User: Fold Exostosin-1 from Ursus maritimus.
Amino acid sequence: MQAKKRYFILLSAGSCLALLFYFGGLQFRASRSHSRREEHSGRNGLHHPSPDHFWPRFPDALRPFVPWDQLENEDSSVHISPRQKRDANSSIYKGKKCRMESCFDFTLCKKNGFKVYVYPQQKGEKIAESYQNILAAIEGSRFYTSDPSQACLFVLSLDTLDRDQLSPQYVHNLRSKVQSLHLWNNGRNHLIFNLYSGTWPDYTEDVGFDIGQAMLAKASISTENFRPNFDVSIPLFSKDHPRTGGERGFLKFNTIPPLRKYMLVFKGKRYLTGIGSDTRNALYHVHNGEDVVLLTTCKHGKDWQKHKDSRCDRDNTEYEKYDYREMLHNATFCLVPRGRRLGSFRFLEALQAACVPVMLSNGWELPFSEVINWNQAAVIGDERLLLQIPSTIRSIHQDKILALRQQTQFLWEAYFSSVEKIVLTTLEIIQDRIFKHISRNSLIWNKHPGGLFVLPQYSSYLGDFPYYYANLGLKPPSKFTAVIHAVTPLVSQSQPVLKLVMAAAKSQYCAQIIVLWNCDKPLPAKHRWPATAVPVIVIEGESKVMSSRFLPYDNIVTDAVLSLDEDTVLSTTEVDFAFTVWQSFPERIVGYPARSHFWDNSKERWGYTSKWTNDYSMVLTGAAIYHKYYHYLYTHYLPASLKNMVDQLANCEDILMNFLVSAVTKLPPIKVTQKKQYKETMMGQTSRASRWADPDHFAQRQSCMNTFASWFGYMPLIHSQMRLDPVLFKDQVSILRKKYRDIERL
Assistant:
């Protein structure tokens, strides 16, 4: 036993000595090699500091700054792999490290704000309908400018949507055409739209020309190639996608429980070979033919029979048994697997149908992911965990399912229902990057009414908008400003406008009265106006046109605005009651005179009616309360063409305001207690009598309805049969028990 221990000790000692000599020899050789290099350097006149005073040596001086996309020829590329070299030479990767800070010139946006210039169309160049819709949406927006010297962003008129070389829409020689543009500047401050890139069999994301420092608004873009806060991921949409307006979502009722006939559905092509085939080929493992119906077909393409497998015939038979639309509208969840490319048309189809998308496309940068929280509207799955999808969605609580479905409807209608909304959302995202100090936050983008209708230039505080009082725990405003639109000279102390001033001033909620003087005569002297307990401010209307009544005047210090025509007859009690109703509905128009619209089948156009019925869709601004933000939105959101039409006709401004508010809220206005005398008063011998009695006045309003509907792309007005009356209104009880007792005496 002792002998074994001695042998073990000797063996260990020998091993240690061997290792010591080995590493010592390496160190000795390294020092000799280093001394030889020093001798060689000495012979060449080079000097090195002694080891006692050693400092780190840098290989070369600091280089001047160059954009990231111009570093591909630097020495650092010597050590990259051949695949990386190929990628570096591909146009999609040349500006891969571009960001707003390095590849965008902010100085172009400081002078004239965010303006977008579209290159004029070149002769002989064909543009697909989808790209024409994109350009039309830009040219019709408030961002458009025809002067390139005022532009902050530039968009090509060359069709870049379809870069699949096998597509008939493919534009040849795009590389040379783009480089010949005199404003190209290596793509700086340019935005390129693209839906399809690459071709069979790889379907890469290369758009086929050098994009330089341009931003990409691209569908089916991968997280690997997506440049955060520079590119914009957009949805894949079909050529039939509406240019403006678009259909509303299909969720009509908030059914509880929010479950439908099918739990999970899919119906689409199955690729037997090539990219995108693995996921769809495995769907049959999950299909149960009952509440999980996942159908695929091999029957597509010219040579499908040459490549079909043993499951093709059975799959094709099962595929024909189901109607896609019926499945879509009767399913709780819709599977959205990748196809040849990462994106799919089914994504938008599922959103519209209120079918919660179950994403199965690893690496896809979801549309507008920079601002949209998709966890509130979709289930993000993993292609590698396909078999776990059914159990995962079954575990989602019914409350969560209802919230997901409701959010799909909001996102569809706010950002995806038309080409115009997709384009405007893209531009608004870029604008927020440029002007970060007033950019929208996540709450604005992901809550009704959405980022397109909440303009941050108005205010950076959410409490200044009528949509977020509940979120912020705020109470609606407690005071209003009465804005009276005056168009006739003040010749008598018995004129209705003076009585109106007195009635509004006596309201306990009135903070001030503004008289907007749109009359051709000079302003009346101050002593002509009655003495009131609140300030009365008289201002001249800008250009004395109809739209000037909706300008965002700085004199309006309250959030609530009581809009009045000069000949309106309202009592203080009526004003008080209308304002208390508005406090419960601060995002809507609340008022007295109501009108309605209808579809005239014989003329195939929209009609306007002033008949007194139980149905209405407009509350005229001659006696209505609304939030003053709508003044700003009317002035800065609506196009000049519509406002010019209103000013030329001196008519329809109230209809246009109703169109705007209903488009934003997706809700009807609210009518308060019926007042029979209002109609009779409007037809009295006042300044507006000729206007209401004029037959052209009614015809003009009919025409306005159709022009406005054409611009919005749909009819935003919504019918309602709700009328709010005071408690105990018309009840057979003592009048002393009623708060608004004077209303019944009118």
